[in-house]
Each structure stands twice: as structure tokens, then as C-alpha cells.
Design goal:
The protein folds into two domains: 201 residues, no CATH class; 76 residues, no CATH class. The strands form two sheets. It has a six-stranded mixed beta sheet with strand order 1-4-5-6-8-7, sandwiched between helices. The chain has nine helices and eight strands. The protein is of the alpha/beta class and 323 residues long.
Length: 323
């Protein structure tokens, strides 16, 4: 087990997430987490059954692969997704995924269209750009509602997005059991023991399951691969984003100064710089998008996987590779 400074697995890796929440012996961990997340609107979830996580859209011949997919004793479906990096159209993807458990409920013959509830929970290792001005809000509960009255129009379709980087509470600041779950998911890899505040039966089971030293050789190799993939992906995306922003800023400033000179006013220059920066950042991001796709392709990833990771259409990925 040499080579690991960490004592516990990283839950943001595919292996770590499924090890903690996706195995039958640890089903009670997922059950406890979902109960803390949904108790106010769902009540107590008594039991869960894991379902097949791969689905095929027969009409579009397009696959949807859920990280975790399960059903409770009332027939309500739960999709739990772990998203490691920013992805274009991730919200669109989560809504598209929710259509599968909806369509599965269609009954042949006479049917009154009554549906069971569908919940999509997305654990995000990033922050949506549109949410960056809300540093203290890390949980977003989304339902169909009336724009004017804000009353829920339909309560059987729920999306919950957890922006984990925003959760900055310390151990001393943890107040609820849900706080404790968020803290563990956010910090598990960095802990070296079980803090007294987290010494509860369900959390002790989680820490025991997460111990790297207790993995067998096959599991250890799988975790190493998963961790390397996670770190490579994060580093590639972070580098591409930073470089794209830097290039865009330089180009944007140039465009802004030019625009400002034309208008001959300080206000005009500021406005021009703002527009130029936007265009520059957009151009820089586009160049890095191409670079990142080619980097993934050179590592042996297929077009479908690249499309899944980047949020780009398969057609766009093919176009980049062909050019």
C-alpha cells in the first residue's frame, strides 16, 4: 500500500464515489445521505434498490450512464451524479437524464399519466459561473414553479445541485447532520482520523470503508487509475481555463484600448475594454477547448467519452479531431 500519503480515498474519483455509495453493503450510507438531503420534502426513505445505471435512448441511439440510479419502496427514482469538472450544458444534461426515469413509467394500454417522483442530485466539484456571486449558497433546490408567485407548480420533479467548493464550514461550525455529510465529502481525502464530532455509527462505517490500507490489490490498482484520471482531468482543465483567461485578458485589453480611443472618452474606453475582454476570453477559451479535446484524444479516449466529459456534441468533437 505504499505511495499514498492520504489515509482515505478521494470521494470525487469514480472508484471512491462508487465504493462509498454504490455498493450493496454500504447502501445504508447512501440512504442516510439522501434522508438528510431530502427529509423535509420526501419524508423518511425506508429502503433503496440499485438499478441498472446504463440506459439507451432507442430513438436517438444515445446512451445515458448514471453514476448511481436507485428506486425506493414507493417507486420514486433517484439519480445521483458526481461531476468532477465544469462541463458545458451540464444543467441540460441533468434534465435530459431525468427524462429516462420518467419515460420508464409509461404503461402500455390505458394509462392515466400518473407519475412517481424523480430526484436528480448532482454533487459538483466546481461552481457554476452564474453562481459565483453567491459564495455562501452551496445548495440549489430546483422545481417547476410559477415565475410570478414562486409557488411550486409541479413537485414530482426535483433537481438538487451541491456546489462543494463553496462549503467552507469548519468542524466547529457543523450544526446539522447534513453539514457533517457535506464536510466529509468535501474533506475526506485530507483527514487522517475520525474527528470526535463525526464519531457516529454511520460515519464510522464510512471511514472504515474509505481506508486505503483496507483495499485489496485489485481495488488498489483500480483506485490508483481512478485517482490519476481525476487529477489529470482537473489539472488539464484548470490549466486550459487559466491560460485561456490570460490570453483573453491580453487580447481584451488591446481591443478595449482601441475601442476607447475611437470613442475618445474614459467611459467609452471602459465599455470597450469590457467588450474586448469578453471577446478575448471567448476566443482564448475556444482555442483551449480545441487543445483539450486533442489532448484527451491523444490519450486514447474515444469520441463518446470526450463528448461526455466536455459537454460538446459528438459532431463538434469529430470536427475538431478531423481538422
Amino acid at each position: 500500500m505504499e505511495g499514498f500519503e492520504e489515509k482515505y480515498i478521494n470521494p470525487f474519483t469514480d472508484f471512491g464515489f462508487k465504493k462509498l455509495f454504490g455498493e450493496e453493503p454500504n447502501k445504508n450510507l447512501l440512504l442516510d445521505f439522501l434522508n438528510e438531503l431530502l427529509r423535509e420534502q420526501e419524508g423518511e426513505i425506508k429502503d433503496l434498490t440499485y438499478l441498472k445505471n446504463e440506459h439507451l435512448d432507442q430513438e436517438e441511439n444515445r446512451k445515458a450512464i448514471f453514476d448511481l440510479y436507485c428506486v425506493n419502496d414507493k417507486g420514486e427514482k433517484f439519480i445521483v451524479e458526481l461531476q468532477k469538472t465544469k462541463q458545458n450544458f451540464f444543467k441540460d444534461r441533468s434534465i435530459y437524464y431525468a427524462t429516462f426515469p420518467i419515460r420508464e413509467q409509461v404503461k402500455k394500454g390505458r394509462w392515466n399519466y400518473e407519475l412517481k417522483a424523480v430526484y436528480t442530485i448532482a454533487i459538483l466539484d466546481f461552481i457554476f459561473e452564474e453562481d459565483e456571486n453567491e459564495p455562501d449558497k452551496y445548495r440549489y433546490d430546483v422545481k417547476l414553479s410559477d415565475i410570478e408567485t414562486h409557488k411550486v407548480f409541479y413537485d414530482k420533479l426535483t433537481f438538487i445541485y451541491l456546489e462543494m467548493p463553496k462549503f467552507q464550514k469548519t468542524l466547529e461550525e457543523l450544526e446539522t447532520r447534513f453539514d457533517k455529510w457535506m464536510y466529509i465529502i468535501r474533506n475526506l481525502e485530507r483527514l487522517q482520523n475520525i474527528p470526535p464530532k463525526l464519531q457516529e455509527q454511520v460515519f464510522e462505517q464510512l471511514f472504515e470503508t474509505a481506508e486505503i490500507a483496507k483495499l485489496d490489490q485489485k481495488q488498489l490498482l483500480s483506485y490508483e487509475d481512478s485517482l490519476k484520471y481525476y487529477r489529470d482531468l482537473k489539472n488539464s482543465l484548470d490549466t486550459a481555463f487559466d491560460e485561456g483567461k490570460e490570453e483573453g485578458l491580453v487580447e481584451g485589453l488591446e481591443k478595449g484600448i482601441e475601442q476607447g480611443r475611437k470613442e475618445g472618452l474614459r467611459k467609452g474606453m471602459e465599455k470597450g475594454m469590457e467588450k474586448g475582454m469578453e471577446k478575448g476570453i471567448e476566443k482564448g477559451a475556444l482555442e483551449k477547448e480545441v487543445s483539450f479535446v486533442l489532448r484527451l484524444y491523444s490519450k486514447g479516449m474515444d469520441i463518446s467519452t470526450i463528448s461526455e466529459l466536455t459537454g460538446l456534441s459528438k459532431e463538434r468533437v469529430e470536427e475538431i479531431i478531423e481538422k
